[in-house]
Fold:
Amino acid sequence: MKVPFERIIIDKKAQRDELTGRIIERLPGIPFEYENDLPRLIAERPAKDRSLILTHHSGEFVKDFPSTPGTPPCGEKYIITMLNCPFTCSYCYLQSYLEHGRIVVFTNLKKMKSDIRKALDRPDVLRITTGEMGDSLALDHITGVTLDILPLFSGSKTLLEARTKSANTGHIIEGTKNRPGLLDNLLITWTLAPSAAIRKEERMVSSLEERMAAIAEASAAGINTAVRFDPVIPWYYRKEEYERLVEMIADSVGRGSILRFEIGVMRFPPGLWEEAGKVSSALFKGEYFRDREGKMRLYRPERIRIYRDIYQSIRRYFPETRVDLSMEDSEVWEDTGIPT
Ligand code: SF4
Structure:
Protein backbone atom coordinates (compact mmCIF):
# COMPACT_ATOMS: atom_id res chain seq x y z
CA MET A 1 0.00 0.00 0.00
CA LYS A 2 1.36 3.42 -0.98
CA VAL A 3 2.33 5.62 1.99
CA PRO A 4 -0.13 8.52 1.95
CA PHE A 5 2.00 11.00 3.94
CA GLU A 6 4.48 13.74 3.07
CA ARG A 7 5.48 14.61 6.63
CA ILE A 8 4.96 13.63 10.25
CA ILE A 9 4.08 16.20 12.91
CA ILE A 10 4.97 15.03 16.40
CA ASP A 11 3.39 16.61 19.46
CA LYS A 12 6.11 17.20 22.07
CA LYS A 13 4.12 14.93 24.44
CA ALA A 14 4.47 12.02 22.02
CA GLN A 15 8.14 12.51 21.30
CA ARG A 16 9.49 9.73 23.51
CA ASP A 17 6.76 7.16 22.97
CA GLU A 18 7.70 3.72 21.68
CA LEU A 19 4.93 3.90 19.08
CA THR A 20 6.25 7.23 17.78
CA GLY A 21 9.69 5.65 17.28
CA ARG A 22 8.17 2.68 15.48
CA ILE A 23 6.16 4.85 13.10
CA ILE A 24 9.19 6.98 12.21
CA GLU A 25 11.19 3.82 11.60
CA ARG A 26 8.49 2.39 9.35
CA LEU A 27 8.21 5.58 7.30
CA PRO A 28 11.85 6.07 6.28
CA GLY A 29 12.45 9.17 4.20
CA ILE A 30 9.31 10.96 5.44
CA PRO A 31 10.44 14.17 7.19
CA PHE A 32 9.21 14.82 10.71
CA GLU A 33 8.97 17.89 12.91
CA TYR A 34 8.03 18.63 16.54
CA GLU A 35 5.11 20.84 17.47
CA ASN A 36 4.51 22.55 20.82
CA ASP A 37 1.05 23.86 20.13
CA LEU A 38 -0.91 21.21 18.28
CA PRO A 39 -4.40 22.60 19.03
CA ARG A 40 -3.37 25.91 17.39
CA LEU A 41 -1.93 24.14 14.36
CA ILE A 42 -5.11 22.09 13.89
CA ALA A 43 -7.35 25.11 14.42
CA GLU A 44 -5.43 27.09 11.82
CA ARG A 45 -5.28 24.26 9.29
CA PRO A 46 -8.22 21.92 9.95
CA ALA A 47 -8.47 20.47 6.44
CA LYS A 48 -7.06 17.08 5.56
CA ASP A 49 -3.57 17.26 4.09
CA ARG A 50 -0.77 14.78 3.58
CA SER A 51 0.63 15.01 7.11
CA LEU A 52 0.33 12.49 9.89
CA ILE A 53 -0.04 13.83 13.43
CA LEU A 54 1.22 11.86 16.43
CA THR A 55 -0.09 12.88 19.83
CA HIS A 56 -1.75 11.67 23.05
CA HIS A 57 -5.44 11.01 23.57
CA SER A 58 -6.46 12.61 26.84
CA GLY A 59 -9.91 11.05 27.33
CA GLU A 60 -11.09 7.45 27.67
CA PHE A 61 -9.85 5.23 24.84
CA VAL A 62 -12.78 2.80 24.97
CA LYS A 63 -16.25 4.15 24.29
CA ASP A 64 -19.82 2.92 23.97
CA PHE A 65 -21.54 3.29 20.62
CA PRO A 66 -24.24 5.94 20.67
CA SER A 67 -27.41 3.86 20.77
CA THR A 68 -30.36 4.42 18.47
CA PRO A 69 -33.57 4.39 20.57
CA GLY A 70 -35.31 1.01 20.39
CA THR A 71 -32.36 -0.90 18.91
CA PRO A 72 -31.51 -4.31 20.37
CA PRO A 73 -28.26 -4.20 22.45
CA CYS A 74 -25.22 -4.80 20.23
CA GLY A 75 -22.68 -5.70 22.93
CA GLU A 76 -20.12 -3.61 21.14
CA LYS A 77 -17.66 -0.86 22.09
CA TYR A 78 -14.98 0.97 20.18
CA ILE A 79 -11.38 2.00 20.78
CA ILE A 80 -10.09 5.36 19.59
CA THR A 81 -6.66 4.45 18.25
CA MET A 82 -6.72 7.23 15.66
CA LEU A 83 -8.86 10.03 14.24
CA ASN A 84 -9.74 10.25 10.56
CA CYS A 85 -8.77 7.99 7.75
CA PRO A 86 -6.48 7.98 4.72
CA PHE A 87 -9.41 6.70 2.65
CA THR A 88 -12.00 9.17 1.43
CA CYS A 89 -15.44 7.60 1.12
CA SER A 90 -18.04 10.14 0.01
CA TYR A 91 -20.50 8.95 2.66
CA CYS A 92 -18.03 8.86 5.58
CA TYR A 93 -19.76 10.11 8.70
CA LEU A 94 -16.48 11.40 10.14
CA GLN A 95 -16.84 14.38 7.77
CA SER A 96 -19.63 15.71 9.96
CA TYR A 97 -18.62 14.13 13.27
CA LEU A 98 -15.06 15.39 13.76
CA GLU A 99 -14.04 19.02 13.99
CA HIS A 100 -11.10 18.64 11.62
CA GLY A 101 -9.88 16.36 8.83
CA ARG A 102 -6.27 15.84 9.97
CA ILE A 103 -5.14 12.24 10.39
CA VAL A 104 -4.08 11.68 13.98
CA VAL A 105 -2.59 8.54 15.57
CA PHE A 106 -2.53 8.32 19.37
CA THR A 107 0.76 7.05 20.74
CA ASN A 108 0.07 6.81 24.49
CA LEU A 109 -0.30 3.05 24.28
CA LYS A 110 0.08 2.44 28.02
CA LYS A 111 -3.13 4.34 28.80
CA MET A 112 -4.89 2.74 25.80
CA LYS A 113 -4.01 -0.72 27.10
CA SER A 114 -5.10 0.09 30.62
CA ASP A 115 -8.51 1.34 29.34
CA ILE A 116 -8.92 -1.82 27.26
CA ARG A 117 -8.15 -4.02 30.28
CA LYS A 118 -10.85 -2.19 32.24
CA ALA A 119 -13.39 -2.69 29.44
CA LEU A 120 -12.54 -6.39 29.22
CA ASP A 121 -13.45 -6.86 32.89
CA ARG A 122 -17.10 -6.61 31.85
CA PRO A 123 -18.53 -9.98 30.75
CA ASP A 124 -21.21 -8.52 28.43
CA VAL A 125 -18.84 -6.99 25.86
CA LEU A 126 -18.90 -9.17 22.75
CA ARG A 127 -16.73 -7.08 20.47
CA ILE A 128 -14.51 -4.03 20.67
CA THR A 129 -13.67 -2.47 17.33
CA THR A 130 -10.89 -0.14 16.25
CA GLY A 131 -12.84 0.82 13.12
CA GLU A 132 -15.11 3.60 14.30
CA MET A 133 -12.84 6.64 13.89
CA GLY A 134 -11.01 5.43 10.79
CA ASP A 135 -10.34 2.23 8.84
CA SER A 136 -8.75 -0.23 11.31
CA LEU A 137 -6.13 -1.58 8.93
CA ALA A 138 -5.36 1.27 6.51
CA LEU A 139 -2.31 2.33 8.55
CA ASP A 140 -1.93 -0.73 10.74
CA HIS A 141 1.17 -2.04 8.94
CA ILE A 142 2.82 1.25 10.03
CA THR A 143 1.41 1.58 13.57
CA GLY A 144 1.20 -2.13 14.46
CA VAL A 145 -1.55 -1.32 16.98
CA THR A 146 -3.70 -4.39 16.25
CA LEU A 147 -0.90 -6.76 17.23
CA ASP A 148 -0.02 -4.57 20.22
CA ILE A 149 -3.46 -4.83 21.79
CA LEU A 150 -4.61 -8.27 20.61
CA PRO A 151 -2.83 -10.23 23.42
CA LEU A 152 -4.89 -8.29 25.99
CA PHE A 153 -8.00 -10.07 24.72
CA SER A 154 -6.61 -13.60 25.25
CA GLY A 155 -8.69 -15.62 27.67
CA SER A 156 -11.62 -13.17 27.51
CA LYS A 157 -14.92 -13.74 25.71
CA THR A 158 -14.47 -10.50 23.76
CA LEU A 159 -13.34 -10.21 20.15
CA LEU A 160 -11.06 -7.46 18.92
CA GLU A 161 -12.72 -6.43 15.67
CA ALA A 162 -10.71 -4.74 12.90
CA ARG A 163 -13.00 -3.20 10.28
CA THR A 164 -11.57 -2.50 6.89
CA LYS A 165 -11.98 -1.72 3.21
CA SER A 166 -8.36 -2.64 2.57
CA ALA A 167 -6.47 -5.83 1.80
CA ASN A 168 -3.81 -4.81 4.31
CA THR A 169 -3.65 -8.02 6.33
CA GLY A 170 -0.23 -9.48 5.46
CA HIS A 171 1.40 -8.15 8.64
CA ILE A 172 -1.37 -9.64 10.80
CA ILE A 173 -1.18 -13.05 9.15
CA GLU A 174 2.60 -12.98 9.57
CA GLY A 175 2.44 -11.68 13.17
CA THR A 176 -0.06 -14.30 14.36
CA LYS A 177 1.53 -17.23 12.55
CA ASN A 178 2.34 -20.09 14.95
CA ARG A 179 0.52 -18.23 17.74
CA PRO A 180 -2.90 -19.88 17.31
CA GLY A 181 -4.20 -18.83 20.76
CA LEU A 182 -4.09 -15.22 19.62
CA LEU A 183 -6.49 -15.80 16.75
CA ASP A 184 -9.34 -16.89 19.03
CA ASN A 185 -10.01 -13.25 19.90
CA LEU A 186 -9.42 -11.61 16.53
CA LEU A 187 -12.15 -10.79 14.03
CA ILE A 188 -11.54 -8.96 10.76
CA THR A 189 -14.67 -7.52 9.18
CA TRP A 190 -14.67 -6.40 5.57
CA THR A 191 -17.12 -3.84 4.29
CA LEU A 192 -18.24 -4.84 0.81
CA ALA A 193 -20.36 -3.23 -1.88
CA PRO A 194 -20.93 -3.70 -5.61
CA SER A 195 -17.93 -2.65 -7.72
CA ALA A 196 -19.77 0.38 -9.18
CA ALA A 197 -20.39 1.79 -5.68
CA ILE A 198 -16.76 1.17 -4.67
CA ARG A 199 -15.44 2.89 -7.80
CA LYS A 200 -17.64 5.94 -7.43
CA GLU A 201 -18.00 6.42 -3.68
CA GLU A 202 -14.90 4.93 -1.99
CA ARG A 203 -11.50 6.36 -2.84
CA MET A 204 -8.00 4.93 -2.14
CA VAL A 205 -9.57 1.69 -0.86
CA SER A 206 -8.89 -1.85 -2.16
CA SER A 207 -11.07 -3.11 -5.01
CA LEU A 208 -13.80 -5.67 -4.48
CA GLU A 209 -11.59 -8.41 -5.93
CA GLU A 210 -8.68 -7.46 -3.66
CA ARG A 211 -10.93 -7.50 -0.61
CA MET A 212 -12.39 -10.88 -1.59
CA ALA A 213 -8.87 -12.31 -1.98
CA ALA A 214 -7.93 -10.85 1.43
CA ILE A 215 -10.96 -12.47 3.09
CA ALA A 216 -10.03 -15.83 1.59
CA GLU A 217 -6.41 -15.48 2.68
CA ALA A 218 -7.28 -14.41 6.22
CA SER A 219 -9.83 -17.17 6.54
CA ALA A 220 -7.30 -19.76 5.31
CA ALA A 221 -4.86 -18.43 7.95
CA GLY A 222 -7.41 -19.22 10.68
CA ILE A 223 -8.61 -15.64 11.30
CA ASN A 224 -12.31 -15.15 12.12
CA THR A 225 -13.90 -13.11 9.34
CA ALA A 226 -17.13 -11.17 8.96
CA VAL A 227 -18.79 -9.01 6.31
CA ARG A 228 -20.66 -5.73 6.46
CA PHE A 229 -22.91 -4.45 3.71
CA ASP A 230 -23.02 -1.00 5.20
CA PRO A 231 -23.92 1.36 3.79
CA VAL A 232 -26.12 -0.17 1.11
CA ILE A 233 -26.56 2.86 -1.15
CA PRO A 234 -30.01 2.73 -2.79
CA TRP A 235 -28.76 4.22 -6.07
CA TYR A 236 -26.39 1.24 -6.55
CA TYR A 237 -28.74 -1.37 -5.06
CA ARG A 238 -29.70 -4.30 -7.30
CA LYS A 239 -30.96 -7.46 -5.63
CA GLU A 240 -29.03 -9.68 -8.08
CA GLU A 241 -25.76 -7.84 -7.42
CA TYR A 242 -25.97 -8.45 -3.69
CA GLU A 243 -26.91 -12.07 -4.34
CA ARG A 244 -23.80 -12.29 -6.50
CA LEU A 245 -21.68 -10.70 -3.76
CA VAL A 246 -22.87 -13.27 -1.24
CA GLU A 247 -22.18 -16.04 -3.73
CA MET A 248 -18.65 -14.68 -4.30
CA ILE A 249 -18.03 -14.70 -0.54
CA ALA A 250 -19.25 -18.31 -0.30
CA ASP A 251 -16.99 -19.27 -3.21
CA SER A 252 -13.99 -17.48 -1.66
CA VAL A 253 -14.17 -18.75 1.89
CA GLY A 254 -16.61 -21.65 1.84
CA ARG A 255 -20.06 -21.77 3.32
CA GLY A 256 -20.21 -21.45 7.08
CA SER A 257 -16.86 -19.77 7.59
CA ILE A 258 -18.12 -16.20 7.99
CA LEU A 259 -18.82 -15.38 11.62
CA ARG A 260 -21.47 -12.73 11.02
CA PHE A 261 -23.01 -10.40 8.46
CA GLU A 262 -24.20 -6.89 9.16
CA ILE A 263 -26.47 -4.88 6.88
CA GLY A 264 -27.21 -1.16 7.05
CA VAL A 265 -28.97 1.03 4.52
CA MET A 266 -27.47 4.49 3.90
CA ARG A 267 -28.47 7.04 6.54
CA PHE A 268 -27.24 10.53 7.29
CA PRO A 269 -26.63 11.71 10.85
CA PRO A 270 -27.10 15.47 11.32
CA GLY A 271 -24.58 17.42 9.24
CA LEU A 272 -23.56 14.59 6.90
CA TRP A 273 -26.28 15.36 4.32
CA GLU A 274 -24.68 18.77 3.71
CA GLU A 275 -21.06 17.53 3.75
CA ALA A 276 -21.62 14.48 1.55
CA GLY A 277 -23.62 16.61 -0.88
CA LYS A 278 -20.40 18.43 -1.78
CA VAL A 279 -18.82 15.24 -3.12
CA SER A 280 -21.56 12.94 -4.41
CA SER A 281 -25.11 13.34 -5.66
CA ALA A 282 -25.78 9.60 -6.11
CA LEU A 283 -26.08 9.20 -2.33
CA PHE A 284 -29.30 11.19 -2.23
CA LYS A 285 -31.29 9.35 -4.89
CA GLY A 286 -34.33 7.86 -3.19
CA GLU A 287 -36.92 9.09 -0.72
CA TYR A 288 -35.32 10.19 2.54
CA PHE A 289 -37.11 11.35 5.67
CA ARG A 290 -35.86 12.77 8.95
CA ASP A 291 -36.31 10.38 11.91
CA ARG A 292 -36.81 11.20 15.62
CA GLU A 293 -33.05 11.53 16.19
CA GLY A 294 -32.65 13.96 13.29
CA LYS A 295 -31.07 11.33 11.00
CA MET A 296 -32.13 11.26 7.34
CA ARG A 297 -33.28 7.71 6.53
CA LEU A 298 -34.59 6.00 3.43
CA TYR A 299 -38.36 5.46 3.30
CA ARG A 300 -38.95 2.61 5.74
CA PRO A 301 -40.77 0.11 3.41
CA GLU A 302 -37.84 0.47 0.96
CA ARG A 303 -35.33 -0.30 3.73
CA ILE A 304 -37.31 -3.33 4.78
CA ARG A 305 -37.47 -4.60 1.19
CA ILE A 306 -33.67 -4.25 0.85
CA TYR A 307 -33.01 -5.97 4.21
CA ARG A 308 -35.31 -8.87 3.34
CA ASP A 309 -33.71 -9.37 -0.07
CA ILE A 310 -30.16 -9.39 1.25
CA TYR A 311 -31.11 -11.55 4.22
CA GLN A 312 -32.64 -14.15 1.88
CA SER A 313 -29.48 -14.16 -0.25
CA ILE A 314 -27.33 -14.65 2.84
CA ARG A 315 -29.56 -17.47 4.09
CA ARG A 316 -29.26 -19.28 0.75
CA TYR A 317 -25.48 -19.56 1.10
CA PHE A 318 -24.96 -19.19 4.85
CA PRO A 319 -27.92 -20.87 6.55
CA GLU A 320 -26.53 -20.65 10.09
CA THR A 321 -24.55 -17.39 10.11
CA ARG A 322 -25.75 -14.59 12.35
CA VAL A 323 -27.15 -11.54 10.53
CA ASP A 324 -27.45 -8.14 12.24
CA LEU A 325 -28.98 -4.88 11.15
CA SER A 326 -26.99 -1.75 11.74
CA MET A 327 -28.72 0.91 13.84
CA GLU A 328 -32.29 -0.15 13.17
CA ASP A 329 -34.93 -0.41 15.88
CA SER A 330 -36.68 -3.60 16.98
CA GLU A 331 -39.78 -2.86 14.87
CA VAL A 332 -37.71 -2.82 11.68
CA TRP A 333 -36.04 -6.09 12.72
CA GLU A 334 -39.47 -7.63 13.31
CA ASP A 335 -40.78 -6.46 9.93
CA THR A 336 -37.79 -7.93 8.12
CA GLY A 337 -38.19 -11.28 9.87
CA ILE A 338 -34.54 -11.26 10.92
CA PRO A 339 -34.17 -12.72 14.43
CA THR A 340 -32.53 -10.39 16.99
S1 SF4 B 1 -13.02 3.62 5.28
FE1 SF4 B 1 -14.53 4.14 6.83
S2 SF4 B 1 -13.53 5.67 8.10
FE2 SF4 B 1 -12.36 5.55 6.20
S3 SF4 B 1 -13.21 7.14 4.87
FE3 SF4 B 1 -14.29 5.23 4.41
S4 SF4 B 1 -16.12 5.28 5.73
FE4 SF4 B 1 -14.66 6.79 6.54
Observations:
- The first strand starts at residue 7 and ends at 11.
- The chain has one domain: 58-98+123-336.
- The chain has a mean pLDDT of 94.
